[in-house]
Design brief:
The complex is a heterodimer of chains A (about 200) and B (about 190). Chain A is built from eight helices and eight strands; from the N terminus they run H-E-H-E-H-E-H-H-E-E-E-H-E-H-E-H. Chain A is an alpha/beta fold and about 200 residues long. Chain A has a single domain, classed as 3-Layer(aba) Sandwich (Rossmann fold), CATH 3.40.50. In chain A, helix 1 crosses helix 2 and helix 1 runs parallel beside helix 7. By secondary structure, chain B is of the alpha/beta class. Chain B has a six-stranded parallel beta sheet, with helices on both faces. The longest helix of chain B has 19 residues. Classes of the chains: A alpha/beta (about 200), B alpha/beta (about 190). At the A-B interface, helix 3, helix 5 and helix 8 of A face helix 3 and helix 4 of B.
């Protein structure tokens, strides 16, 4: 049984309800909105091609100290990852313990007409480990996905989970929110999360 | 056999002296900002500045200093750091401006994420590379076309003002919620 993108998004949202989740652009954003709705902890990157992991890396580095137990999760696609592959070496060098990266690999640039990517010839987990990441896994079945999500909750990062997915899409509308509002919504959520809890 | 040594005329600083003095002013300006994260790219012109932060007095506990393989990657990491409410700056050469425009204009600029970039000038008087001027001379035009706010420090600005102006650029980026580029000419022109 194959895994579809929406399946992964549902599981990640359920597993990381209070963690920073950085979403890659295009269909991933729209499908996460369809399955989970607008979430304060989801940072929506609308068009920064190839920069999802870099953005998440910055958040992971910046949040390591104030939120040491919380994960920063990046949801990236195979095509976008290949647009900014150099970040693999930067992550491996800096080794943020809180960074979890899911690469949803459908083998194509789905948002632009399903042109094939070069991902099929690349062993991403081996690349990550060779760059200095702590660990990684390939996921091909729903059972492996559930196990990998559970593993990501407790594993020390940086880790990379490559999920082989199909190309089925949920029908969605364009998401046309102002990026300023997206950034401010996320910041408000983060500030509220970091605010000390009042007693009495 | 005679040897020839380049000697600056009386009253004119050597290029090395200018580089040293201006680099120190840039260091002073950045230290006044006291960034938590210093992201940099490879640059021979920036050697003095980068040495200060990589293994000099600026490599202090609590500050992370690391190299970027690509300028656009640095922009995205800095955007994440800004969202996390810490203090990043980026240091690189102007021939990398072309690399970062898409990242800057799809992330920092439209999301209103402040970012101070200290960008060294190449391609002007004193340049020793036969190619780099073809991109470096277009830096201002590229930034203008992209709608990116920039300021410039060169011989027109008294060296005593450089550090202050760099610190002001940091505050200006935050006050106006956008990336700001401070172009600095360390090569003497």
């Amino acid at each position: 049984m194959s895994i579809e993108r929406a399946d992964v998004l549902r599981q990640v949202d359920a597993a990381f309800p209070d963690s920073t989740v950085v979403l890659t652009l295009g269909g991933t954003v729209r499908e996460m909105l369809a399955v989970a709705g607008r979430k304060g902890n989801h940072f929506i990157s609308l068009d920064a091609m190839g920069q999802t992991i870099s953005l998440a890396l910055g958040l992971a580095l910046g949040l390591e100290e104030p939120r040491p137990t919380e994960k920063v999760v990046a949801i990236e696609g195979d095509g976008s990852l290949l647009m900014g592959l150099s970040v693999m070496s930067t992550v491996g060098h800096l080794k943020p313990k809180n960074l979890v990266v899911f690469v949803l690999d459908n083998g194509v640039y789905l948002a632009t007409g399903a042109q094939p990517t070069a991902a099929g010839d690349i062993d991403m987990v081996t690349v990550a480990k060779a760059c200095g990441w702590v660990d990684g896994r390939d996921v091909r079945t729903p059972e492996e996905l559930s196990a990998a999500v559970a593993w990501a909750l407790s594993a020390q990062g940086p880790i990379l989970i490559r999920v082989y997915i199909g190309t089925a899409q949920i029908p969605t509308s364009y998401f046309l929110e102002d990026p300023v509002i997206l950034a401010e919504d996320f910041r408000r959520w983060l500030r509220a999360e970091q605010a000390p809890t009042s007693i009495g | 056999m005679s040897t020839q040594t380049a000697v600056a005329p009386v009253g004119i600083d050597s290029q090395e002296a200018i580089l040293e003095r201006r680099s120190q002013a840039v260091i002073e300006g950045i230290e006044a900002i006291d960034p938590d994260f210093v992201l940099h790219l490879a640059s021979s012109t920036l050697k003095i500045v980068l040495s200060h932060f990589i293994d000099g007095a600026g490599a202090r506990p609590g500050r992370r200093v690391f190299a970027m393989p690509r300028e656009e990657e640095g922009v995205a990491i800095a955007a994440g750091l800004e969202l996390a409410d810490v203090r990043p700056i980026m240091i690189f050469q102007d021939n990398g401006i072309g690399n970062l425009l898409t990242s800057l204009l799809t992330l920092s600029q439209p999301y209103h994420l402040p970012l101070l970039c200290i960008v060294t000038r190449r391609g002007g008087l004193g340049e020793y590379n036969s190619m780099i001027h073809t991109i470096s001379e277009r830096s201002e035009a590229l930034l203008d076309a992209a709608g990116v706010r920039w300021f410039q420090l060169d011989a027109h600005t008294p060296i005593e003002r450089w550090a202050v102006e760099i610190e002001r650029a940091w505050h200006f980026a935050r006050a106006t919620h956008r990336p700001v580029f401070m172009l600095v000419n360390l090569m003497g022109a």
